[in-house]
Amino acid sequence: MPLVVVGSVALDSVETPEAKRENVLGGSAVYFSLAARFFTRVRLVGVVGEDWPAEHTKLLEDSGVDVSGLSVVPGAKTFRWRGRYLPNMNDRETLEVQLNVMEQFDPVLPEEHRRCRFLFLANGSTRMQLRVLEQCVGPNLTVADTMDHWIRTEPQELRTLLQRIDGLVLNDFEATLLAEEQNLIRAGRKILEMGPNFVVIKKGEHGAMFFSRHEMYVLPAYPTADVIDPTGAGDSFAGGMMGYLAEQTEFSPEDLKTAMAYGIVVASFTVEDFSVYRLLKIRRQDIDARLDAYRKMLTF
Amino acid sequence: MPLVVVGSVALDSVETPEAKRENVLGGSAVYFSLAARFFTRVRLVGVVGEDWPAEHTKLLEDSGVDVSGLSVVPGAKTFRWRGRYLPNMNDRETLEVQLNVMEQFDPVLPEEHRRCRFLFLANGSTRMQLRVLEQCVGPNLTVADTMDHWIRTEPQELRTLLQRIDGLVLNDFEATLLAEEQNLIRAGRKILEMGPNFVVIKKGEHGAMFFSRHEMYVLPAYPTADVIDPTGAGDSFAGGMMGYLAEQTEFSPEDLKTAMAYGIVVASFTVEDFSVYRLLKIRRQDIDARLDAYRKMLTF
């Protein structure tokens, strides 16, 4: 089933202890789309400025992503993020954020997108996420991401959103901030009480935790010796997870856990090169082979 | 098969954001013994001072631990450690260390202990670990722990030790220090090249990594909502792991992975109360039940 993702489309500048890249393709909706397209058709909704290289749009199209929901604002500039990774390659500092077109991002979904059964609300303001949700006609599964900035500045809107979505995906720091609780297990349970049917806490190199009314579990990250650039790992995780779910007819606890595992495996590819380069080089069978290795790793 | 552990026996003072305990039973050899005794007979080798409460020796004896190798030095004081946990309950600061009797700890193993087939060299100086090793008559399996202090102050001795043991167990920070490498996967592989047949990197609340010539994997910690005191988790992990291995006739990769899982599960009990209290309340069937839940958690 097709999957709609609404989120940022960016030009990233990334520094690691080993190398740096300027103005490379990035953004939550881009990483998500390129991860999810291994599993299902993806419709990206986002906004860019006049400075957006046409080759990036072509790259997304050539990868099978529907970019009819990507709008270009004349006279405006694309969202830009600049960050630097610490030597552990897990922690990072944001050096600069230029919101540019993202500041006014308030998408009107094309008719076809509104009837989509799977919706992922990637990075963006909670108000925008709520307005997107209102445009959709009863999706089967709605999952949202959020960030520290929105937890701090739009707490009321976030409370409302949490009661209207099926799942929330956020990182460990954001979970402790939202739940006001340092223990991640208690934090996850507290967020669950705020409304969603499931919560996923992403722990970077330490994997991800899943919470629902009936179960809670932790899965480790797939171990990767060659971490080149962790940017987009979390969005790729969500893309792999939602992409797999969009292939299923129901969402059993087993399906959700397998979806988590696929998300973890896809993210492990993303970090093996800068930007989306690694995601462009792999095929579905590479993902399935690594999923088998991952399953074997966890069997005793 | 009986298992000999040589290491610290301590009186710990622990502060957490919630509570504090003064002079409670602790030490690497104590946690190790009380974890391993669920699986096999354990012979503890350690030293204490005149201030050592006799009830602690009785507690160890009542728990089935052979304490014939525990010596009391007249006129001396027991090793003491004081630490405080940060609100995340994973990181801690050491507030005070009184080495006392541990400063001169140079055990002479009883004859029966020297023929032991399983040996664990817990926290203590590398020189002492080497001298213990020389007293043993061809153990089947020797595993050692080490700490940042010994990595910094006895690097040559540690190089020698690493060529004489089967396995090394250390935490993530110590691994990056020893390997001079921030990526834990590369760090583990580098340590493997220093001599041991396998290396285990303990990641606290994030689980543990295993490295051998033929495989590398990560297992997550068993998720625990009620972390009361993480002290001794690493030593309990080693106790559960070695205890299980001492029950086996060979050490296949499958046995080693199951041993890792047992170590993780035993450690998850240890953190549920101060000192060794939780370990004293559980039985082997509690461990096996949690191992089943852990296996189920990792199956998809």
TrEMBL record, chains A, B:
SUPFAM superfamilies to which the protein is assigned, alphabetical: Ribokinase-like (SSF53613)
Domain Carbohydrate kinase PfkB: start-end pairs: 156-276
Keywords: Kinase, Transferase
MF-aspect GO terms: ribokinase activity
Major enzyme class: transferase
Enzyme Commission code: 2.7.1.15
GO CC entries: cytosol
Protein name from the UniProt record: Ribokinase
Organism annotation: Thermogutta terrifontis
